[in-house]
Amino acid sequence: QMDARAMHKSFQRIGQTQPGIYTLFVPFPFVQITDYDILREAFIQHGDDFTGRPQNEVIQEAFTFAHNTENIFDMSLNPGVISSVGDVWREQRRAAISILRDFGMGKNVMEELVRSSVEDYLQHLETMEKSNVDMRWPIQVMVSNIINEVLFGFRFKYDDCQPLMDYVLRFNSVNQYIVNNVDRALKGYKVEDEPACFAQAYKQRMADNKNLNELNLMSTCADFFLAGQETTTTTLRWAMVLMAKQQEIQDKLRREIRSVVGMDRMPSMADQINMPYARACALELQRYANVIATNVQRVTQRDVVIRGQMVPAGTWVNGDVHYIMANDPIFVSPEEFVPERYLREDGTNLRKVAAL
């Protein structure tokens, strides 16, 4: 029997008796992959065969339980990046990557935006009562401000972030949150002007591509906001807990940071090549925190053979990253937080171990 409130636990129980790959009937066939090598074979070696997304009335109802006047989660309309398929997906992905690169993704411009948000976060912490600091909301606002500024061109202040808090506390308000902020970003914007954020740049490209429209703009912004905010925020909260619990790891990480970065400046991406332990800590944090209980499901676009087994076209497939991170033999003692598992014996280079 499946526990609808904790599906990952049900999958874990089944995976321990059906190793590698198995099929559930719910009531339609649903293939679950719980082995790292099989997952790579399916999603990398045969990646083009697994690019479909589920279209199902039950799933549709789950995504549209909110007041959904803009239909930004209506999967029957094939919107956004995460849920779309075919030409719409390709065009949303192409446009999104191009726009984000224009705004400095992977470059110093984006790094400066992140650094600025971190500095605001640290300044806010300085104003708080030192004997009892609640890190939950400050981390949420810091991460949200990075995404918000990219998408909509503004950031929240720590003493004026009620709309963001309302969104987090009541998920069904996400529709209106996205709609309101896209409207705010586009208010007064003319397509001949230089865009200052993702929403404006997307609007500028709409005239030249039939698959770029208001619905897909809203849906793509929602995809980025949901996918980027809660996962990053939750992972950073885990970092706080784990570093507080394992002081020896925190001390070792601090020594490396001070040795490479010093005390007089913020770290930069250029420093990471000289900080193998910090990189190992980040990889192990993502593995251990394991914040995605159930990944985005895929649908086979055509018949495909995986490990000698035929998976027919139209089959739902889930790569159970949650199970792999917690159970796969590639991770020795997976219940322990061990950054060294990602380091070679010399401690200065990363192993080529799975980092999903």
From TrEMBL:
It comes from the Eukaryota. The keyword Oxidoreductase applies. Pfam families: p450 (PF00067). GO terms for molecular function: heme binding; iron ion binding; monooxygenase activity; oxidoreductase activity, acting on paired donors, with incorporation or reduction of molecular oxygen. InterPro entries: Cyt_P450 (IPR001128), Cyt_P450_E_grp-I (IPR002401), Cyt_P450_sf (IPR036396). Keywords: Monooxygenase, Oxidoreductase. PANTHER family: CYTOCHROME P450 FAMILY (PTHR24284). Belongs to the cytochrome P450 family. This is Cytochrome P450.
